[in-house]
Amino acid sequence: MKISIIGGTGGMGEGFALRWVVNHDITIGSRDAQKAASAAEQYMNTALSSYGNNMKGTIKGADYVSSSRDSDILILSIPYESIKLTCDSMCLPTRSRLTLLSASPWRTKTISGKTTQININQVLNLFFH
Ligand SMILES: NC(=O)c1ccc[n+]([C@@H]2O[C@H](COP(=O)([O-])OP(=O)(O)OC[C@H]3O[C@@H](n4cnc5c(N)ncnc54)[C@H](OP(=O)(O)O)[C@@H]3O)[C@@H](O)[C@H]2O)c1
C-alpha cells in the first residue's frame, strides 16, 4: 500500500514511517521538497539498519502536493491549527483511495460533557494489523 504522510518530517511522521515501511511504500511530505528528501533518506537508513532484508517497503520524500498524489492513504501529521490552511491553500488532491486521517489529537465529548482524547494509534490499528 502507498501511504503519504503530510508533515512526515515531524516526530509523529517519523514514527509512523519507521513502523509502516516494513510492509508499505511511504512518501514523506514536506513544504520543502529538499527537507522531505533528506528526512526520507535518513529514515530509510534507520529502517534498513533495523529491519535489513525483512523490510518490504521504501521511503521517499516530496512536497505536499506531489506526496498526496497517487497514495492509497493520506495521513495529515501537521499541527492541528494548520490543517485547514494547508488543505485550502494547497488544494491538496485528496484522491487517496481509502481515507484521510489527521494525526492531531482527536477529541470527543461524553454524555456528561467531559472531553477525552482519542489516540491516533487506536484509530490506525483498525487499518494496520
Ligand atoms: N493523537 C496522538 O496521539 C498525537 C500524539 C502526538 C502528537 N499528535 C499530533 O500529531 C501532529 C504531528 O505531531 P508532530 O509532533 O510530528 O508535529 P510537528 O513536528 O509540530 O509538525 C509536523 C510537521 O508539520 C509541518 N508543519 C509545521 N507547521 C506547519 C504549518 N503551519 N503548515 C503546514 N505544515 C506545517 C512541518 O513539516 P515541514 O516543515 O517539513 O513542512 C513539521 O515537520 C500534531 O498535530 C500533534 O498535535 C498527536
Structural summary, described in words:
The structure is a single chain. Helix 1 (11-20) links the parallel strand 1 (2-6) and strand 2 (25-30). The protein contains five helices and seven strands. The longest helix is centred in the N-terminal third of the chain and has 19 residues, at 33-51. The model has no long low-confidence stretch (mean pLDDT 80). Strands 3-2-1-4-5 form a five-stranded parallel sheet. It has a two-stranded antiparallel sheet with strand order 6-7. It has a single domain (2-104), classed as NAD(P)-binding Rossmann-like Domain (Rossmann fold, 3-Layer(aba) Sandwich), CATH 3.40.50.720. Helices cover 36% and strands 25% of the residues. It has helices at residues 11-20, 33-51, 64-68, 83-90, 120-124, and strands spanning 2-6, 25-30, 59-63, 73-76, 99-102, 106-109, 115-118. It is α/β, with parallel strands linked by helices. The structure holds NADP nicotinamide-adenine-dinucleotide phosphate. NADP nicotinamide-adenine-dinucleotide phosphate binds next to helix 1.
Explain briefly what this protein structure is.
The protein is of the alpha/beta class and 129 residues long. It has helices at 11-20, 33-51, 64-68, 83-90, 120-124; strands at residues 2-6, 25-30, 59-63, 73-76, 99-102, 106-109, 115-118. The longest helix has 19 residues, at 33-51.
Strand and helix map with partners:
Layout: E1 2-6, H1 11-20, E2 25-30, H2 33-51, E3 59-63, H3 64-68, E4 73-76, H4 83-90, E5 99-102, E6 106-109, E7 115-118, H5 120-124
Parallel strand pairs: 1-2, 1-4, 2-3, 4-5
Antiparallel strand pairs: 6-7
Bound molecules: NADP nicotinamide-adenine-dinucleotide phosphate.
Residues 7, 9-13, 30-32, 35, 77-80, 82, 86, 103-105, 119-120 line the site of NADP nicotinamide-adenine-dinucleotide phosphate.
